[in-house]
Structures are given as structure tokens and as C-alpha cells.
Amino acid sequence: MQKQIAQERTTLVESFLLMGTVVSIRLVGEGSVADMRDSIDRAIHAMRSTEEACSRFDAASSLRDLCRRPGEWVAVPAALFQALSIAREMAELTGGVFDPTVGRALELQGFNRHYLTGDESDSQVPDAGASWHDIELNPDGMQVRLATPMLLDLGAVAKGLAVDLAAHELGSWPGFSIDAGGDVFVAGSDPEGAIWRVGIEHPLAPDSLLAQLELTNMAICTSGNYKRRSAENEAVHHLWDPSQNHSAEGLKSCTVVAPQAVLADVVSTAAFVLGPKRALSFIEEMDLAGVVVHEDMTVQMTKSMGGYIRE
Hints:
Layout: E1 9-18, E2 21-30, H1 33-54, H2 62-67, E3 73-75, H3 78-93, H4 103-108, E4 135-138, E5 143-146, H5 158-170, E6 175-180, E7 183-188, E8 196-202, E9 205-215, E10 218-224, E11 240-241, E12 246-247, E13 251-258, H6 261-274, H7 279-285, E14 289-294, E15 299-301, E16 309-310
Antiparallel strand pairs: 1-2, 2-6, 3-5, 4-5, 6-7, 7-10, 8-9, 9-16, 10-13, 11-12, 13-14, 14-15
Helix pairs in contact: 1-5, 5-6, 6-7
């Protein structure tokens, strides 16, 4: 009679800077540590490649190259084409309240410094006139044409996309988590073999939790006005409402749970910019779970969110 011998579970953790935040990958495996490290290296490479394609702060990025060539059809990397496709679709769904062409407005408000080098960017594009309607996409050859000069900002899409691409590289292991600031993806089981627990940060107390969730094979992303403020004007935050030409008002944070990080990321941002009257209903229309925190700290959540929250 043969006996099955259970393999010992190993946990590897890797942390690094990416897209203006500290990213932490925790991988749970049974077997070769070298193979686990190889998977983590591939995940990191996928995330860095996405940043290199989609960063508006790096003059050498594919995004900045595209923005320097208005009126031309430009072949772009797959990550940039996918991010633009998602951003344009969300712009259409929100009637332009969410708009990826707000890069210049953010740049002029002081959101123009590269997180690694400290270098300030100045795209020098006109400060008006562009909208999501001016982004033309051709899937054949993954080509993009910007009909008018603009500076794109894909901050609400690229990080979530990078997390999803990293998750693809880690998917064969028993469990993993990717924590990229406000974007988290968990799969399988945690190092103890249990379902993952993920906390939602309290908007007014960074060391406290608003709630704790239990979930797996899901992403959870939070957009809030308390993390990134302009160095030039403390009243200005990075979640920009192009319809009003100022930072979105009325909410402190918006958290969304979704099967993909890019979906949770873009919906949480779009809901935040839509504001307190429309945020929750928009999340429900997208058939997702979410929590909305108003400026007065009133908390609302979708019915489906109750299935994830644990005491």
C-alpha cells in the first residue's frame, strides 16, 4: 500500500517599487523554490513592461511617444493598446466623466514628478480641447491615432492591468497575493491554507481598517482622495473630474471587488469621479461589489459586498 506524502508549503515574498507604490508579491508553493522564484521574476517583468509602456512620467515610455505624434497612426505595445481600449470603453460608459485625456490637467496641478528620479515632466501640450473621442483604435496591428494633441493618463487602468498580467504568471501555484498599494489580487489559499483576508484601509486612520474581507481568485481596489495630493495645492487630489475641471468631490474612498484587478481599478476610479449620487448605483450596474465612503464618513455598500465582509 502506497502512502501519499504531503509536500511542505513554502512562502516567498518579493517587494519592489513600481508605478509610484511599493508592490509586494507573496507566493505559496509546493516544490522547487527555484521555480517559484522564476515565476516571481516573470511576474515582475510583466509589471515593469506594463509601466514602461503606459507611464506618462517617463519620457521614454510608449505612451509619451504616442502623445508626441498626434495625427499619426502609431503601433503600440499590447499593454498600452489594451489599457487604452479599457479606458476608452469606461469613458463611453460614464459619458466622459471618466476620461484618460486628463494628463495635462494633472501635470499642471503638480502631478508631474517621476517617483524614482524626482524629475519633473512638462509635455507642453495644449491645456484644452482633447477628449476620449479623439482616441482612435485599430486592432489590426494594435495601432492608435490621437486626433488632437493631448497627454494621456492611464493611472486608473495600467496598475490594475499590470497586476492581472503578473497574476497570470503566478496562476499555476497553490496560492499568491499581489499587493500594489490600493490594488490587490489574491488567488488560491494563503500560507496557512486558509482563504485570504484583505483589509480596506480607513480613509481617516491609515493604521486602521474600515473592514476586512475574505476572498480568493478576486481583486480588490480602492480609489481615495487621501493618498495623492498636489505638492502645489494640498486641496487638489489626483482623481480628476474633467467635466468640472477640478478634483472630484463628495467621496473619501471607493472600493470595488472584481474578478480582474484592471476591472476593479477602473470601476473604483470611475465611480469615485461620478460622485456620491451615482457611485454605488454605477458599481451595481457593472454587476460588481463595492463600498463607498462619503466625505462625512457615511458608508454605503452593495448587497453583494456583504458576502465578503468578515468581523
